[in-house]
């Protein structure tokens, strides 16, 4: 899994590619927790290049979302497609989290 982040105004856009599973999910959690600790509280996570997500990946998403909630922050997801979208829908994450068709659409709703 590869994680690349950039700032757009006060929002971190985090692009995740590859597979988010038991091996790589801690890397996602560590990266976002590091950013949250540094003061970033608004995130758009771009899953355009994410091919696979396991239950461990879902737990990582929940853990970072809880950390953000404590800080009064928010996370939105963009480009959730294919099998990742199926997993989001089956797990109920599609109704728990704000999911957008593009990074631009997610950024427009942050605020």
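^ structure tokens above, recovered residues below v
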């Amino acid at each position: 899994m590869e994680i690349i982040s950039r700032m757009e105004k006060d929002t971190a856009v985090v692009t995740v590619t590859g597979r988010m599973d038991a091996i790589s999910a801690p890397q996602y959690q560590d990266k976002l927790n590091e950013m949250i600790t540094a003061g970033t509280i608004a995130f758009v996570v771009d899953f355009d290049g994410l091919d696979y997500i396991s239950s461990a990946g879902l737990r990582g998403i929940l853990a970072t979302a809880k950390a953000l909630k404590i800080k009064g922050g928010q996370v939105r997801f963009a480009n959730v497609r294919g099998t990742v979208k199926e997993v989001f829908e089956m797990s109920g994450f599609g109704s728990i989290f704000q999911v957008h068709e593009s990074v631009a659409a997610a950024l427009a709703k942050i605020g």
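The two ends are 29 Å apart (CA to CA).
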